[in-house]
Amino acid sequence: MPLLDVQSLVTEFPGAPGGPGNRAVNEVSFAVERGKVLGLVGESGSGKSVTGFSIMGLVDRPGRVTGGRILFDGQDLASLSGEEMRQLRGRRIAMVFQDPMMTLNPVLTIGTQMTEAITAHEKVSRAESRARARDALGQVGIPSPEERLSAYPHEFSGGMRQRVAIAIALLHNPDLIIADEPTTALDVTIQSQIISEFQRLAETHNTAVIWITHDLAIVSRLADDIAVMYSGRLVETGPVSDVLTDPRHPYTAGLIGSVPSQNTRGTRLRQIPGMTPSLGRLPSGCAFRTRCDRATEACATVPPPETHEGARGFRCIHPVHPELLTQ
Amino acid sequence: MITSLIRRSIQALFVILAMTLIVFIGVSVIGNPVDILINPDANAAERTRVIAHYGLDQPLWRQYAIFLQGLLHGDFGDSFVYGRPALGLILERMPATLELAFSALVIALVVGLPLGLYAGLYPDRLSSRVIMSGSILGFSLPTFWVGLMFILVFAVELGWLPSNGRGDTAELFGVRWSFLTGDGMRHLLLPALNLALFKTSLVLRLTRAGVQEVLPQDYIKFARAKGLRESRVISVHVLKNLMIPVVTIIGLEFGSLIAFSVVTESIFAWPGMGKLIIDSINLLDRPVIVAYLMMMVLLFVALNFLIDICYTLLDPRVRMDGRA
Question: What UniProt keywords are attached to this protein's entry (chain A) (predicted)?
Answer without folding.
Answer: ATP-binding, Cell membrane, Membrane, Nucleotide-binding, Transport
